[in-house]
Protein 1
Amino acid sequence: MAEKGLGDLMCSSTDLEHYLCEFFLSGRREITILLSGKTGAGKSHLTNALIGEELAEEGEELDPQTDNVTPYDFTKNNVKITVFDTPGLADGTGNDESYLNQIREKVASVDLFLFCTDMTSKRFGDDDARTIEKLTRTFGTILWDHALVVLTFANEVHAPSRKDVTEKEFFQQKIQRFQKKIQELLRRQEVPEEAVYNLPFVPAGELTKPRLPDRDNWLTAFWIVAFKRINRNAKAAFLMANLDRITIYCGGLLSDFSSETDRTIQGGDRMPNEEDIDVEIFGRKVA
């Protein structure tokens, strides 16, 4: 597949040209990302994968002091990216109302919400369920319009030694169980059915070993679905912030990327056509 440089892509893809022009003309230079999940759920690892910045050393969480909501600010290609971590909710420490007030005061709006939970867990915990309830109450159901559920440590999920289920089938069944539980919870919170149905569930593994049982590269799929889910007003800034860390090889338009999702609903039955899309992240080919 022939490589297309930025100039070629701008000439051949009206979508890419549109997003770049929108960035320069709109004046929008900020992105706000909200993270939620227990300490140790792989959130810093995940943000390193998403935006190519070491917000914390690998193996360390963003904010071990769970009684504070701390913004992590940095600038890439003239785009200011602010990441908020909210470990106190999921870890069950501190005063919930005080903590929620901090979130209300510090997080005015959210462009992308990543709810992270450990895929190796045998069940979806009550603490994670309470976190979803609290954040939905704080931001309203609109929070889920720009959200994705990330199932971390997916590389550690393995099928038991049984002949009646393959590794891929077991893996997809695990995604479906998380999906069913979280969708039921969101419906009880009166999140609109369209938002519940469209909520993506994305498994995430190791950066250096991107293959998972049901996909060749989780990192590519994760980045694509994040681009699709981020607030439309922030898409141009998100793309611009990442231009120096990705190279796109394509047999189609950028609209092919943003209109397709990764293997999400129904536990992994949809994926961008790999003959049409390759993405190079961190300077190495990952698709």
Protein 2
Amino acid sequence: MLNEISDKLTGVGKAVDSLDPIPATQMPRGYGGTAILWKKHLDSIISPLTIGNERIQGIEVTSDPNLIILSVYLPCKGSSQHLSDFQDCIAQLHEIVSTYQQSHQIIIGGDFNEDIVNGPTSQRKTCVNDFMKEHDFETKYNGSTFIHSNGCDTTAIDYFIFQNLYKHTVLEISKLDIISNVSDHYPIKLILQYHHPVKQINSSNTSVKCKIKWDKVDTQLYESLIASEISDSKPTIETIEDVTNAFKNLNQIIVKSTKAAAPAIKMGKKDLNYK
């Protein structure tokens, strides 16, 4: 479903109840979950990761350094085993961070279902704070992010946390107040300074582009071919798209006429000395 949102986006995600023994009569699943979306032109540098439980979704981004982004939806306090479920998620985050922290920058964002900054002392808050302290993570408090059904802000439970080592790359973390937002959470935005290494071009796939020697070109033939092609094309210009297509067609005419009027390029070969 995520990949059906837009033909310009790719996405991966998990449902928190995907492993629950839900009867067929209670389908479809999808009580809640976590997901990551990105623009399709970034597909070549992003790899989904099969790590964490159904409340943790991760991707790896090829960069300098490589980047791990984790989206989380930690358990709320509605069940009798919420604390053990919460601690299990933090333990899995600990394992993931321990695996990647020496080679990757790591950013974790999502619904922590706990005020980890200004909330009252609790085992859940202590669990997150100890995790952040052990791995030298920081965060920024942006005020209340959860909206109660009565329409009033209640608490701050949505965060981005990041390594202190890469603090200088986090340019902004802010809460967005969007009129069209239908969620009971405010969106949180993070702007990251990111360096993507330039892809090396494979020399075996490159072609030699020779410079046109215009003093050798049959200019009369060149002019005649261009005039004939333009006369035959007769483009209709009514929209911006028509203008774009007309320019593309003109470029093709110029290239075609140049190839026809310019002398053929002779590619020299070095003499081979067989012994």
Protein 3
Amino acid sequence: MYSDNDKRSVPGASQSGGEHAQPESIIAAMDRHKGPLLGTALTIPSTVIAQIIGTIGYHFVLIDMEHSPLSPEITTQMVHAIVASSRGASFPIIRVPSHGVEWIKWALDSGASGIIVPMVNNKKEVDRIIDGAAYPPHGSRSFGPARASWGLPRGPQGGVREYFQRAKNGEVAIFPMIESKEGVANAEDIISTTGVSGIFVGPMDLRLSLGLSGLDGSEPVFMEALEKICTLGQKYGKFIGSLAMDPDMIRSRTQDGMKFLVVSSDASTLSAGLAVHLEQATQESPKTKRPSL
């Protein structure tokens, strides 16, 4: 990754306020933080939940449009809710449904701190993604971030001008997902591409592609794939992240050198938390019968 001597060139690294100043991009936050940034996934279309999550203290929040029926409108509102309720301390990133330029454009124009793009398998695909995500001269992203300023960590006062400058400076992260056997084979071509901020590893789909099952495991072919991606991330100064939904996975992925981990989700946390409270209440009220579902 970056060395201490390189921090002035890291996108979004504060140039004033000393070492304790709040990072202004997720890339700068990863560079500064010794361990991985910890995040949660939002799958429920609710600005109220987004506001609550913003107060918890996660480093980042992944808004999942790929596997959840979230519209561009509610997703934009959730981005702004997270930034406002966390006072810019929690970075919203959007996992878009596909490589389509319309999804990339909508997600970036929300003012999100970055995007995650699923199922990137080769150089041709990643080049197309970067072209749609970057403003000229590095790409062909259309200009129109009218609502993006509400995603700025310090608030919307800087307006479209500040957002545009941040985007041109590389402070908006682009994370292709490697989650297939083909993607692992082409990992160096993908990771080394200019404009790629890092990689998000999709463990479930990667394991399925390798003929395995489950979210995690110690099979040599899977461990070799993770090692290859992480080694290439170190070689090219790119940040690697993934899902890590239990303590063992968090420990393993941290040891792998990953720098951002999704460790929970809104739906699973809501379900588990309510179940715990109900069980506690039932134990204190032994005569109460729970309904049969």
Protein 4
Amino acid sequence: MLDRVQLPCVIRHDTPPPRTDPVQRRADPSPYRAANQSPSQSHKPARSGLFPPNPLPRRHRQFWRGFRAATASCYRGVADGHQAPLGSARPSSTAKGSVMPMIRRFRAALLSLSALLLGVSAIPAAHADDIGGQTLAGVSGTGIHNTYNDKSAYTYLANALDTGTSLVELDTWANVFTRKWNVSHSNPLGSDNNCVKAGTAADLYTGDRNQNLDSCLDDIRIWLQAHPTSHPIMIKIEMKNGFNNTLGMNPTSFDGYVKTHLGSVLYAPADLLTRSDGTRYPDLDTAARADNWADYGSLAGRAIVEIIPGTFEQAVDPASSWSDVVYAQHLKDLAAAGSISQAAIFPSVLGAQAVDPRTRYSDTTLRPWFVVFDADAAAWVGDGNTEWYNANHYLTVVTDAYDVPPALSSSAPSLADAQARVAELAADGASYISSDWITAPANGVLGEVLARG
């Protein structure tokens, strides 16, 4: 494994990182929106320009451009490669599985059609009755891709939370010089984000931004404590350059870090494992398949954290050392030692598909520690048979929702189209539906919560 201190100047040119960013949405004007959020805030203009044939996905281009700007002396030519396949190749789906996904797709289509026929501008968000009695795995919510990075739309991270979103994303770097967790899209040596050093709810909309991960987590905890009836929030953390055991920035220290800053609002792996009588399931997979997730209503004002392997570590490190594998091994070791209560986060499998993607992990004993999955939305729908995730009560995060055929605008679809797309993906069994729809009217979908499946 490469020495991480040397990583900033060692990049393999043939395998740029696969896309892992999520995409998400919002709903009708949220009761959480702060009064001091300026209505004139607008999203940054759409990117323009010509790209060479067979370009990298849009977010990869953004990543590498920013990365070169931040570390120009080390990084040159990185963006000229082509996307490498993630893990094992995605099998083609010749059989679309059971009739249930077809029924759900048809239902979503009917919802969209009814909106057009009735002349309404939006499909109503689900009421409490629609999700009453559901566990966390029975609900679909929306979210915001790279939430920390949209400063033009969300001056502060709390402004994004005010939309009623069910998911926020943070990209973090293990800074090899300061040994701190920076939050930035493309700068490994500093933070660039909308997080502040808040101590109270009044501090969430003021002060210096560009803080480290601890402040971002503090902001989320303080916001949730000030809004105890809000949707539970999934915090998706992309581990840009992974863990660094040499510097002590390993899963054990990361657990303590996350628990310190999220405190009592955190829903952790031990919560999923623990039965009502206090006994525990042997692993996360067994607990999830038993639908031992907490009731959705009981999770109001709480947060759950998932991590995905980062674009940088995927480009330079072997898959066996990526953060998903490292943390799954950590969970397995904690369980064996009777210390699973120390764990704070859920590792996520990238590239969810029609068959169990955990087969890519050669160590079969790690597979039961993955119950959260991340997929490109178009691939999710294209695979057809996604009922396996819903039937086993696994959580799924789908990204780039606009990319599902027929493709929508990545930034400004109509609200009706955005809501129909959310309904479609919820019917397909997605737990969290991520997008870049952060301006009106499409941002009206961000607060929606629907029954899953």
